[in-house]
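Go through the following before class.
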Amino acid sequence: MPRSAFSRRAQRFAALLAASVAAVATAAPTQAETNNAEAKNAGGKKADPIPPPDPSFLVMEPIDAPIVDSGRIDGVLHLSLAVKMKSAENAAELAKRMPELRAASLAAAIEFARLHASPYAPVNVARLSAMMAPPIKQLDTGVEKVLIVQVSANEG
């Protein structure tokens, strides 16, 4: 007897689950319907397409430099950089030398973290930019700007 009661419960649960899934599937709009509704709400204008990335920019992987004070690690300086080159050809050439670029960037970030960073104070981005740009610009004459995309310092 208990086995048949369990079987009926399982069948009811399966039927209820199937009905709720079907109800959600019919009630939820598809991606195409959502896009069409947004286009109608915008006066029939289509959204501007996203432009392709500029090939003259070279985006680097994030860099983490230790913040050292009095011989102990107090925190970590996290930063993300992008390098604006004078041309796409220069960017392609420097991309081949990415290890050199990362080494120069890491050395400058470690020096900044040692001298000017603290996990308890905001990062002086103007000073960081002034310390990061010269070693990177020495690598290639095609470097136009060194852009700091994101920076933070915290206890590590």
Notes: The chain is about 50% helix and 25% strand. The mean pLDDT is 83. The CA atoms of residues 93 and 140 lie 9 Å apart.
